[in-house]
Design brief:
The protein is built from eleven helices and five strands; from the N terminus they run H-H-E-H-E-H-H-E-H-H-E-H-H-H-E-H. By secondary structure, it is an alpha/beta fold. It has a five-stranded parallel sheet, with helices on both faces. The protein is globular and about 60 Å long. The N and C termini lie far apart (55 Å). The relative contact order is 0.21.
Length: 278
């Protein structure tokens, strides 16, 4: 452990780095941004869903999604679902509940591991251009092209020139996807620092979950100010009118899963011109 003085020094250094990085971010986007940009400071960490209601809603939403997916397939509509969020926020669990409702042949889950040498030799979006769902299929992204303005920005894997340019490169990419006819939903899976700590400790203490926790996870907690500044800039610069960010309040994972399913179902109903199921 560290002494209080050391902890204070670490926190001060983190805050200074966060401010320095934020100074490099563009002032504005050339794309239209929504009027109400999400803010981490406004997330309601108290939203919960009781177990019985969760089971009931999960069944209904998954059944509805399964039916809509068949229609989406026939209409050749591509569905792009992107999940970003804090470590241990519950991205994987949310993706799993969506996948359970779909035909196994209809979807692909794309993780975002560190780029390979051939990928590094291309523009950063190239590896995502080559990982898109076919028309009528679903592509789910467990982390995404936003790595450039999150982890690569915070850890210094991208230069300030590279990541500051990336916001509108990403907006352009997403605009192309929407023009192609894709339904694009971008979820930020949020969890309070206190609940994240509880989940980290839970993982440390449970042999079946220890593989989920690494030194990097603990280290990233100390970089909270840098990540928060990066997320604020990401929301501010990429919450476009055609691809706005949606926050999934995930202190209660059940609440977040049902919200994600409901939003996906509503987006499909809207596109397919259906009346919502009662």
């Amino acid at each position: 452990g560290r002494s209080p003085e050391q902890q204070l020094a670490v926190a001060q250094a983190a805050a200074e780095q966060a401010a320095a990085q934020a100074a490099h971010a563009p002032r504005a986007s050339r794309f239209r941004i929504v009027d109400r940009v999400p803010s981490l400071d406004e997330v309601d960490h108290g939203l919960v869903l009781d177990h019985e209601e969760y089971k009931d809603r999960l069944k209904k939403q998954q059944k509805r999604l399964n039916k809509l997916e068949m229609e989406m397939y026939q209409a050749r509509v591509p569905l792009v679902l992107m999940f970003e969020g804090w470590d241990a926020a519950g991205k994987g669990g949310a993706i799993k509940r969506v996948a359970q409702a779909l035909d196994a042949r209809a979807y692909t889950i794309f993780p975002s591991p560190a780029p390979t040498k051939p990928e590094l030799a291309h523009p950063h979006l190239w590896r995502y251009w080559t990982r898109l769902p076919k028309a009528g299929h679903v592509g789910m992204y467990d982390r995404s092209w936003y790595g450039r303005v999150l982890v690569e920005r915070v850890e210094g894997f991208a230069t300030p020139a590279e990541w500051s340019r990336a916001y509108d490169e990403i907006n352009e990419f997403e605009h192309d996807l929407v023009d192609w006819g894709a339904i694009l939903l971008k979820f930020w899976v949020d969890v309070s620092p206190e609940e994240q700590l509880r989940r980290f400790q839970d993982r440390e203490d449970d042999p079946a979950k220890q593989w989920k926790i690494t030194e990097d996870d603990w280290r990233n907690r100390e970089k909270y100010p840098q990540y928060k500044a990066a997320i604020d800039d990401m929301f501010r610069l990429t919450s476009t009118t055609f691809a706005p960010w949606i926050v999934l309040e995930s202190d209660d994972k059940r609440y977040a899963r049902i919200k994600a399913l409901r939003i996906i179902v509503e987006a499909l109903e809207k596109r397919l011109g259906e009346c919502p199921a009662s």
